[in-house]
Amino acid sequence: MMNPMFYFLLALTAVLAATANAGPVLDIDGDIIFHGSYYVIPVIRGPEGGGLTLTPRNGNQCPLFIGQERSEVERGIPVKFSNWRSRVGFVPESENLNIKMDVEATICAQSTYWWVTPAPSHWRSLFIAAGPKPEAGGEDSSRSFFQIRKTETKLNAYKFAFCRDGNDCIDVGKNVEGGVQGLVVSRPPFATPFEVVFVKATEKQTSSKTMSII
Length: 214
Fold this sequence. Notes:
214 residues; mainly beta; Trefoil (Acidic Fibroblast Growth Factor, subunit A)
């Protein structure tokens, strides 16, 4: 009969191997992101827009999609990260996780987790909609998992990727339709990666944004 310590060391080795390449995601100040809310700000600031927000499409009030503020001075709505599989306490790079817009209620009375949704476009881009909290083993919950990947553009800069099967990953970019800038899952040249930095939001800022969107 094998020593129980053998099984413990075997399990510990498996956990360490799984997380060996999962470095922590850092905010714009170089601090490790553990929990809390963070604004997603474009690396390149300018007339192309500001932080992330919720926006309708095609003249329909609902559902809401993940879009970008038109003004570069608007930080938009912060996000929260959750549900990564490794047991590390920080938000890990290059690992599937869920992303939620940190706002308590919307005009559509819906949750605000990111979900990849087919778009009615001849380019066949996949827009990212606000949807329900993913349930483990739920119907097609794989559409709600994204990864945060480091870029070389700037120190502490990242991009989002959608990896439905864990292998074939596609970067999250932007698409302008009807004057609305929305996040999409699409390969170049139809969309270029949306490169961003993370700025920590205070509780007061989050509460203010919540009140303004209800």
